[in-house]
Amino acid sequence: MREDRFRGRLGTALTWAVLLLGLWLWGRAVTAVPQETRHTATGDLFALGAAAPARLPPAARPLPAALPQRIDIPRLGVQAPVVARGLDARGAPEPPPFDQPGVVGWYGAGTRPGASGTALMVGHLDTETRPAVFHGLRTLTPGATVRVVRSDGAVARFTVEGVRVLPRTGFDARQAYAPRVPGRAELRLITCGGDFRDGAYTANVVVSAYLTGSTG
């Protein structure tokens, strides 16, 4: 039993390490960005000045597992197809192709959105010439709605509870990606952030949301 528990913890640690390495490598893959897309703030954007809603809704019971097909973020005007992505030859999660800046990638070996656990979705911040699907991610505030259309016909509704810009130096993967409340269905939306230096962004924008309802 102790050996099995150790293996489980080791596997979890390795998963977070692979995801962290992959996100760092993904940020380094960008070669040029417009000056106006650079953001220098790091930390909890909610704490840095965004007003909190009076009360966030209670969490809903997790849904049965089903594949994500589309993500909608009404406040940003985002309606984007979702594709499953794996790991590339370097051990990094594969983001959507750069010639598909309007597509969102879901880490297909992980939790399915709406099921118990933390589902991870990644999207590009920009291309060499224009903003991409998650360009406005850092402007979300607690209380914003994110909807995920699933293969079983259900639409999972998530409520944003936090937005952080986390520097890659000293990055705490567990703080960013581990479930905030065990047993909940949670969602993380991830893109690049911070400054663009030496061919790479210096931070990740991480939006944390949790399931608060569903239709269908």
UniProtKB/TrEMBL annotation:
<dbReference type="InterPro" id="IPR042001">
    <property type="entry name" value="Sortase_F"/>
</dbReference>
<dbReference type="GO" id="GO:0016787">
    <property type="term" value="F:hydrolase activity"/>
</dbReference>
<dbReference type="Pfam" id="PF04203">
    <property type="entry name" value="Sortase"/>
</dbReference>
<protein>
    <submittedName>
        <fullName>Class F sortase</fullName>
    </submittedName>
</protein>
<keyword id="KW-0378">Hydrolase</keyword>
<dbReference type="InterPro" id="IPR023365">
    <property type="entry name" value="Sortase_dom-sf"/>
</dbReference>
<dbReference type="InterPro" id="IPR005754">
    <property type="entry name" value="Sortase"/>
</dbReference>
